[in-house]
Amino acid sequence: GAGVSQSPSNKVTEKGKDVELRCDPISGHTALYWYRQSLGQGLEFLIYFQGNSAPDKSGLPSDRFSAERTGGSVSTLTIQRTQQEDSAVYLCASSLEAGVLGEQFFGPGTRLTVL
Amino acid sequence: AQSVTQLDSQVPVFEEAPVELRCNYSSSVSVYLFWYVQYPNQGLQLLLKYLSGSTLVKGINGFEAEFNKSQTSFHLRKPSVHISDTAEYFCAVSTRGGGGNKLTFGTGTQLKVEL
Questions:
Q1: pLDDT: is A10 or B31 the higher one?
Q2: In the beta sheet, which residues pair with residue A35?
Q3: In this model, does residue B98 exceed pLDDT 60?
Q4: Which has the higher per-residue pLDDT, A98 or B49?
Q5: Which residues 54-113 on chain A approach chain B with CB closer than 8 angstroms?
Q6: Which one of A23, A25, B14, B38 counts the least CB within 10 Å of its CB?
Q7: Residue-wise pLDDT tens digits, B65-97
Q8: Contact B105 A31 (CB under 8 A)
């Protein structure tokens, strides 16, 4: 596709439910990032995938959060037992190469609302 | 750990007037610096970046920023704004070394250009 796509664009769920957020990176991009944009806070890094290397999970806020990237392409961010504080916009970005020289291209985000 | 401060949450300005969006960062190591723009209902787009070399960096849409190491600042400027510049602007840093390019963002500045 022309850019990074994310689905769904909006997700409303009840507290305690599990949710899955999907990211389709730009074809050929080896690096993939997840960020979270909460109201009143800046975007915060969650997790980073690069090729077949082990992901950098240093930004995940709790063990309820996990992510995988299948076949080096599509990624899914899973939040288990959602809490109200998980409400945010979740952004995915991909880049052609890892490191600072790889410009990150962002998707439109998934707005998650936990009731 | 690094942090980014954008003191101005909103900046109103008249069309054709100059504008400066302020960004200060904190880091114990050398950093790379970025400005991103988010137009309404769109994903984040890279405006410009400072990696090394000249401290004055020019980006897209007539924007420029100057890296000031002594003041730990990376303010964004445009000599004459247009209505189409209305958007939210995010300053971000990443640190040298390590894998990937994990960005730490500020909370954003909403630029509103008025006629």
A1: A10
A2: A45, A91
A3: no
A4: B49
A5: 56, 58-59, 91, 93, 95, 98-109
A6: B14
A7: 999 999 999 999 999 999 999 999 999 998 766
A8: no
